[in-house]
């Protein structure tokens, strides 16, 4: 079966500086795929390239539909939703307005309202904070809001960039439980970038390792977990 996302020979640059050198990466339908690597390896850049935020070359297909040459909005409309590092919520807007912005393509007001309610079911704390400015939320609540906003567009593929960054372990566990639920119960496909490799491999079925803009290993998550050399060389353990 063709993968949901198929990336081939993807290169990307910031101006004259090339940071991805022809990577191949697939996300299977209904899988969580982890993209792991050290600081500066190119993980964030890979996600940015996939959702159209970086100048790129190579081919990308979502469910067989080429994404090459498309801008961020068209890519989002096709079903790829990005939760950037640093969350990217609109800090001066309320929680609910942030969610509403995530549903910007939804013209049916009833559906929009029911989508917002669905996010409150996932993240009840957001309902309690619905009228608060997003900038006043705790780090964990802001991450929940960023994820909720990304889910508002009913994505087929969720790109998560360092969702655990800066959060207390208890909050991380809570958020990852939601990712697991979204994947296992709703079949949402996820491409997950994480510094915390153990955490990522615990939820992922597939994994890629990236080093200075090149994929150096790919395989099932267990094969990374069980490989001493890979763990020592790339994952610091
Ligand atoms: P980290 O976890 O530290 O963010 P990463 O694996 O996500 O690491 P990237 O942020 O994608 O790595 O960075 C890949 C390379 O691109 C690095 O060499 C970095 O210095 C460079 N880079 C990142 N952002 C920019 C930018 N805005 N302009 C120029 N170079 C950049």
From TrEMBL:
Coiled coil: none annotated. PROSITE patterns: ABC_TRANSPORTER_1, ABC_TRANSPORTER_2. GO terms for biological process: L-amino acid transport. Residues 5-237 form the ABC transporter domain. SUPFAM superfamilies: P-loop containing nucleoside triphosphate hydrolases (SSF52540). The keyword Magnesium does not apply. Keywords: Amino-acid transport, ATP-binding, Cell membrane, Membrane, Nucleotide-binding, Transport. It comes from the Bacteria. The keyword Nucleotide-binding applies. GO terms for molecular function: ATP binding; ATP hydrolysis activity; branched-chain amino acid transmembrane transporter activity. SMART domains: AAA. It holds the Pfam family ABC_tran. InterPro entries: AAA+_ATPase, ABC_transporter-like_ATP-bd, ABC_transporter-like_CS, BCAA_Transport_ATP-bd_LivF, P-loop_NTPase. Belongs to the ABC transporter superfamily. This is Branched-chain amino acid transport system ATP-binding protein. The lineage of its organism: Bacteria, Pseudomonadati, Pseudomonadota, Betaproteobacteria, Burkholderiales.
């Amino acid at each position: 079966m063709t993968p949901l996302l198929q990336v081939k020979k993807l290169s990307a640059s910031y101006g004259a500086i090339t940071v991805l050198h022809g990577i191949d990466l697939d996300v299977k339908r209904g899988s969580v795929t982890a993209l792991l690597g050290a600081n500066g390896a190119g993980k964030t850049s890979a996600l940015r390239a996939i959702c159209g935020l970086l100048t790129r070359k190579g081919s990308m297909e979502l469910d067989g539909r080429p994404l090459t040459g498309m801008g961020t909005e068209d890519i989002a409309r096709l079903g790829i939703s990005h939760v950037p590092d640093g969350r990217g919520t609109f800090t001066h807007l309320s929680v609910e307005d942030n969610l509403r912005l995530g549903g910007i393509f939804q013209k049916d007001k009833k559906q929009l309202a029911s989508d917002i309610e669905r996010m409150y079911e996932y993240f009840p704390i957001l309902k309690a904070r619905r009228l608060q400015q997003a900038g006043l939320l705790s780090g964990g609540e802001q991450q929940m809001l960023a994820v909720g906003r990304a889910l508002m567009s009913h994505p087929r593929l969720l790109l998560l960039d360092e969702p655990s960054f800066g959060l207390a372990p208890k909050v991380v566990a809570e958020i990852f439980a939601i990712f697991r639920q979204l994947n296992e119960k709703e079949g949402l496909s996820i491409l997950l970038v994480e510094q915390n490799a153990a955490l990522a491999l615990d939820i992922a079925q597939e994994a890629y390792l990236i080093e200075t803009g090149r994929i150096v290993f790919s395989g099932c998550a267990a094969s990374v977990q069980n490989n001493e050399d890979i763990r020592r060389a790339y994952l610091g353990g």
